[in-house]
Every structure is written in structure tokens, then in C-alpha cells.
Amino acid sequence: MTAGAEEVLRLPEGRPLPDWVARLDRTAFGDAWKRLAPHEALWVIPERAFARWSRVPAAGEAELLRIAVSPEARGQGLGRALLEACQRDLAAEGLAHLFLEVRPTNTPAIRLYESCGWKPCGHRPRYYSDGEDAALYQRLG
Ligand SMILES: CC(C)(COP(=O)(O)OP(=O)(O)OC[C@H]1O[C@@H](n2cnc3c(N)ncnc32)[C@H](O)[C@@H]1OP(=O)(O)O)[C@@H](O)C(=O)NCCC(=O)NCCS
Which pTM does this prediction carry? Predict the structure, then answer.
């Protein structure tokens, strides 16, 4: 699928995570999550961005676990292209109720989410390992 000029791909189920995803995971979040669990799915803009989701098809829900764009490629619309493509693909699967947690201090991410139709719906106290609260957002497709 293309989103704007960007090619957005969904990693086939059971495929190992590409090495560049682990590298970007570490750069953006300080650790690299392992192989996808059976209920998880990964969308990528190859070499530059990924979004990892947890899916609950029986409930029509999905949670955005992580989204990251390579530092040198930020601010060029890749995050928006990737997120919009994920939202379209998930809606096509019947997953229209979307959730995520984000640090309230993460202004670039919050602006991205709000501009893609996400709304704040609560918070989780001391959610992160350093004690910061998480803001909870949802999007109803
Ligand atoms: C959050 C992130 C994915 C955004 O990706 P991106 O490709 O830079 O975002 P885009 O260029 O598509 O911008 C989309 C919107 O986000 C906002 N945004 C992006 N960078 C921003 C910045 N540095 N400051 C403020 N807002 C910003 C803008 O509102 C922008 O909309 P606009 O172009 O209409 O102004 C990226 O900054 C990133 O990888 N951050 C590190 C990982 C992370 O924190 N992930 C989210 C938590 S899971």
C-alpha cells in the first residue's frame, strides 16, 4: 500500500523482525522488543519507520504499542503516512477502536496522534519504569 509517496508494508505473520527494526527500536526506546506475538502486527516504511500493534479481533480493538521514525527522517510526514495506513488497514479488518499510551511530555507524538483523530481518554499513573504517568488516547474509526 502507498500512503502519500511512501510505501507502507505489513510484515507477513511469522516472519522474523528485520535487523533495522531492532536498531530503530533501541534508538527510539532504549530497548528492542523481540519477535511478534501471535496477536501482534507490524507495519513498516522499509529502513525508516515501523509501527507495532496488538490486535484483539473479537473485540474490534487494537493497541498501538510502538511507533518510531528514524531520527534523520523525522518531520517529513513519515509518521503520519505510517499511522494513517495502519488505521486504514485495521479498519478494513474491522478493528476500529484503537488505543495507545504516550508520555504526556512527548509533544511530537501527541501532536501526531491528535492530528490523526485520536482523543485523550484517561491516564495511567506511574505507567513508565521511570515513574512518569501515561496519557491514554483512543480513536474510534
Ligand atoms: C513521534 C514520531 C513517530 C513522529 O514521526 P514524524 O515522521 O517525525 O512525524 P510527521 O513528520 O509525520 O509529523 C506528523 C505531525 O506530528 C507533529 N510533529 C512531528 N514532529 C514534531 C516535533 N518535533 N515537534 C512538534 N510536533 C511534531 C506535527 O503535528 C506533525 O504534523 P504537521 O506536519 O501537520 O505539523 C517521531 O518523532 C518518533 O519516532 N519519535 C520517537 C519515538 C516515539 O516517541 N514514538 C511515540 C511513542 S510510542
Answer: 0.95
